[in-house]
């Protein structure tokens, strides 16, 4: 009886974990869009490094290793603290000098790109890069330092108390009730008419777009997200950032593996 009870508790624990692990869906959406926009040569090479569709399956690796103390150094790489009211020139200066404000997201992306250019078989660098380019397109990873990118901003989500960062990390995506592959296909269908335009966007333009959405998020009454008004207000912004992330990741990898 005791062993059955233990198994039952373990089952509940695993279930609760699976229900809360939504953040990975966003990363897989970005990686899936990227994978479908790689050149044949690039796809062959990244598959050789991580396995077929490995950039999708390994998209969450950089989060998973945060439980391993030997990777503690990588924790600040997932975000870039940005001040309010920064200009395009301010953002570009920081992007061009990524260590000027510490070793954070801009620095990590630059470092992984450099590593891969030197060694295209560097699996760790590739997994980091896939993850960090997605983080770059999550607006709250470009948040304020004083509230830890919205982690200290408490809000409500359909009766549940959460924080603003987790709202954008997972709850907004989970609300659509789509798998990563369904969401990826939906976004590619939605933005197909503008695909050529999105492919021309540079990294700085992605940063500008994410920063603009971040500004809008902070400007909203975040005590009142407990309804469908918030979904209606920001659904298109979320869709665009996920799609941008996938196309930008494809652009970066195609340039490295050309």
Summarize the structure.
The protein has 258 residues and is mainly alpha-helical. The chain has helices at residues 2-20, 23-35, 40-50, 54-57, 61-64, 88-96, 105-118, 123-136, 164-174, 180-191, 195-199, 203-219, 228-256, and strands spanning 154-157, 160-163.
What's the rounded overall pLDDT mean? 92
Number of helices: 13
Helical proportion? 55-70%
Separation, N- and C-terminal Cα atoms = 61 Å
Structural class: mainly alpha
Largest sheet strand order: 1-2
Number of strands: 2
According to CATH, the fold-level topology is P1 Nuclease
- Bulk shape: globular
- C-alpha-based Rg, rounded: 19 Å
What does this structure look like?
The protein is mainly alpha-helical. Residues 1-22 have low confidence and may be disordered. The chain has a two-stranded antiparallel sheet. It is 63% helix and 3% strand. The longest helix is centred in the last third of the chain and has 29 residues, at 228-256. The chain has helices at 2-20, 23-35, 40-50, 54-57, 61-64, 88-96, 105-118, 123-136, 164-174, 180-191, 195-199, 203-219, 228-256, and strands spanning 154-157, 160-163. It has one domain (21-256): P1 Nuclease.
Question: What keywords describe this structure?
Answer:
258 residues; P1 Nuclease; 13 helices; 2 strands; 63% helix; disordered N terminus
């Amino acid at each position: 009886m005791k062993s059955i009870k233990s198994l039952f508790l373990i089952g509940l624990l695993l279930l609760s974990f699976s229900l809360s692990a939504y953040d990975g869906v966003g990363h897989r959406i970005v990686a899936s869009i990227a994978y479908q926009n790689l050149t044949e040569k690039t796809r062959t090479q990244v598959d050789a490094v991580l396995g077929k569709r490995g950039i999708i399956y390994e998209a969450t690796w950089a989060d998973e290793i945060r439980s391993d103390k030997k990777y503690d150094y990588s924790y600040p790489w997932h975000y870039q603290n940005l001040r309010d009211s920064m200009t395009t020139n301010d953002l570009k200066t920081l992007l061009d000098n990524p260590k000027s404000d510490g070793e954070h997201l801009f620095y990590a992306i630059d470092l992984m790109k450099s590593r891969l250019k030197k060694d295209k078989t560097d699996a760790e660098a590739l997994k980091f890069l896939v993850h960090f380019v997605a983080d770059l397109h999550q607006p709250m990873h470009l948040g304020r330092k004083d509230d830890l990118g919205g982690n200290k901003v408490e809000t409500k989500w359909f009766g549940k108390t959460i924080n603003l960062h987790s709202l954008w990390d997972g709850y907004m995506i989970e609300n659509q009730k789509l798998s990563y592959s369904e969401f990826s296909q939906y976004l590619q269908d939605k933005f197909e008419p503008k695909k050529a335009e999105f492919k021309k966007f540079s990294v700085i333009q992605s940063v500008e777009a994410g920063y603009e959405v971040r500004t809008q998020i902070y400007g909203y009454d975040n005590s009142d997200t407990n309804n469908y008004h918030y979904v209606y207000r920001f659904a298109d912004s979320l869709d665009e950032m996920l799609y941008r992330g996938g196309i930008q990741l494809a652009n970066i990898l195609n340039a490295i593996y050309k």
